[in-house]
User: Which sequence fits this backbone?
């Protein structure tokens, strides 16, 4: 976040993720879920480093040095993406999000002129990840073929309620309070998406939006088309994008709100205040996960 969006966004996103009830809850379990979140961040970071965006291409770096550096990042992407798949089956959704983003960036003209060369390398990387995961597929098919132990979510609205509350307040808030969650988190989140596009580097906003939306959507589609396979803990792979977008909205709201001459200043100040409220409420939503029976 610091390299792409600056120190203020990095600090605020780090603050929110540090008190995120969903992350804190599952960090207390010696299981794979928080590791999946870490590997998802590493995979997406390597993805950003290998994408030939126009601004990066204009930096004037020596082509030979850039080629060596890119080779390292490509290997890092294959390694972290493979480890991500081995960590949990639900993380396939993160790779779906990455491939969708790359397709949108190619079609939308967000990349520099070396698009055919990049596309070939991207296909090779995806094949490499698939081949490295191939030895586990026999076991994976057997495990995924068993009957599902996940609860069957009845409606799309129920999926949205559970996803929104899990991202913002973990498991300690009743999903039925969706209106409250949308009010507190929706404004700074939308401002963050708009601010990322307004800066003229729209790929950042697109990447974060795809990272946030596609993994939950992919899990919902799988649950509806194959068998139930949705749980709040599977959203950890997309939680970093949620935190960064909230931080963008907060910094934009506070910065633009100070310039009171702007017509949108009241809205921006509200976004900043709501982000601060989201941090306070998230920190207070932890509860005693180790003692309360419902957790």
Assistant:
């Amino acid at each position: 976040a610091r390299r792409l969006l600056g120190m203020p966004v990095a600090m605020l996103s780090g603050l929110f993720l540090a008190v995120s009830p969903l992350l804190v809850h599952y960090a207390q379990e010696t299981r794979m879920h928080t590791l999946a979140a870490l590997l998802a961040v590493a995979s997406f970071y390597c993805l950003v480093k290998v994408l030939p965006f126009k601004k990066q291409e204009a930096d004037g770096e020596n082509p030979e040095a850039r080629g060596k550096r890119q080779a390292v990042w490509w290997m890092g992407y294959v390694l972290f993406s493979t480890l991500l798949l081995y960590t949990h089956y639900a993380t396939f959704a993160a790779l779906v999000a990455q491939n969708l983003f790359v397709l949108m960036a190619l079609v939308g003209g967000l990349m520099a002129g070396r698009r055919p060369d990049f596309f070939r390398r991207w296909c090779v990387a995806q094949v490499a990840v698939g081949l490295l995961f191939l030895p586990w597929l026999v076991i994976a098919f057997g495990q995924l073929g068993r009957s599902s132990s996940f609860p069957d979510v009845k409606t799309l609205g129920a999926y949205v309620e559970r996803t929104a509350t899990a991202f913002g307040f973990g498991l300690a808030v009743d999903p039925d309070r969706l209106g409250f969650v949308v009010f507190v988190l929706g404004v700074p989140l939308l401002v963050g998406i708009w601010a990322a596009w307004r800066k003229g580097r729209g790929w950042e906003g697109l990447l974060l939006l795809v990272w946030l939306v596609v993994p939950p959507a992919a899990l919902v589609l799988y649950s509806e088309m194959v068998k139930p396979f949705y749980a709040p803990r599977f959203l950890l792979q997309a939680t970093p994008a949620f935190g960064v977008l909230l931080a963008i909205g907060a910094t934009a709201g506070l910065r633009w709100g100070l310039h009171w001459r702007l017509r949108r200043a009241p809205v921006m100040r509200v976004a900043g205040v709501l982000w601060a409220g989201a941090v306070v409420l998230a920190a207070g939503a932890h509860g005693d996960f180790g003692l309360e029976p419902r957790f």
